[in-house]
Amino acid sequence: MTATQFTFIFVFTLVFTSLAKLWLAWRHLAHIAAHRAAVPEAFREKITLADHQKAADYTSAKTSFAMLGILFDAALLLAFTLGGGIQFIADLCTVWFVSPLTQGVTTIAAVLLLSSLLETPLSLYRTFVIEARFGFNKMTLALYLKDALKGLLLGAILGLPLLFGVLWLMSAMGSYWWLYVWLAWMVFNLLILFIYPTFIAPLFNKFTPLQDEAMKARIAALLGKCGFTASGLFVMDGSKRSAHGNAYFTGFGKTKRIVFFDTLLERLSGNEIEAVLAHELGHFKRRHVLKRIVATFAMSLGFLWLLGQLMQTAWFYQGLGVSTPSTALALLLFFMILPLFSFALQPLLSAYSRKHEFEADEYAARQTAATDMVSALVKLYQDNAATLTPDPLYSSFYDSHPPAATRIAHLQSHRLQAH
Question: Which residues are the active-site residues?
C-alpha cells in the first residue's frame, strides 16, 4: 500500500463515519419528535406528559449538540494528522529534548493536553447550558475548574509513568514488544480497579457510611442471600454536581464497595433500592465484570498486535501526515484513528452490554419483586429525563442499556412466568 492510498482510505473512513453518526443522530431526533406528543401506552399511568416531553427535549438538546461535537472531532483529527499538527508538535519536542523517550512522552502529552483544552468550551456548554437548562447541573464554575485541575494532576501522576514504561517497552523488547506492553497494561488496569474506591474516588466526592440502620439491615440480608461480601455501604454526595441519580459497585477483590448517590436514596423506596441493588449484584453473580475485563484485555491485545504490524510500514505514518516515524507517534496515531475504523463494531458491543443488563434484571427479579424493579426504573428514567422513545437504530449503536419499553416488558414477562 502507498501513503496516498492510505490517506484516501483514512479520509474516506473519516467522512463516512462522521456522516453515519450525523445520520443516526438525525434519525434519533426525528423519532423523538414524532413521539413527543404522547406518552407511550406502557407508561401512561406512571409518567406524565410534561415529564415525557421534558425527556424528549433534553435528549434532543444533547443529541443536537453532539452533532456539533462530531464535526468538531473530525476537524480536530484532520488538523492533527493531515494538517500537520502532530508533526509540528513532534518537531518542537525534538528541539527541546535530547532523549527520544522524553521526546515521545512530551509529544503525546502535549497532543492530549491540547485536545482537552480545545474541547473545554464544548464541555462547559454541556454542563452550564444544557444540563442547567433542564435543572440537572449543580456544579459551580469553581468546582468545575477544581475537578479539571485534579483530573489533570491525577492523569499526570498515573499516566506519565505508564507512558514512559510503554514507550520504553516498545523500543527495548524487540518484535514482541506488544505482548510486554499488553501485560503492563493489564497490571495497570487491575491496580486502578483496586485503588479507585479508597484513593481516587474520594479526591472528587465525599463518601459517608450509610446511616439508615433499617436500610443497612435490609441490604445486609440481601447481600447474605446473594452470597456477596463488600467492604462497606457508602453514600456519595452526587447532588454536589448533578441532580441525576445512580448506584454502583466499585473496587476489586476485598476493596469492593457499594455506593449510592444521595439523590437516589431520596427518591426510591426501600423495596426499590433493594431491587436496584439486586440488579447490580446480578452483574457480579453472572460474572459480567470479569467477562468485560477479559473481553477488553483480549481486544487490547489484538489492537496492540495490529499496531506492531502497522508501525513497521512507512505508508502508515506518511498517509497520516507524519514524516518522522517513531514508536511514540505510531502509538499516538493508532489510537487517534482507531475509533474511526472500529465504529462498525459498536452495535456488537452495545448488544453484548444489553445482554448483560437483561441477565442482571432477571437476577434482580428472582431476588426481589419484579414490580419493584419496574417502578425503580420508571423513577430513574423520569428523574434522569431519559427518553422513552429512542430511535431503534440509534439505540443499537449507542445505548449500553436496553430501551425503557423493552426492558420493562422483559421484566414484566419474567414476573408473569414466575407466577
Answer: 280, 361
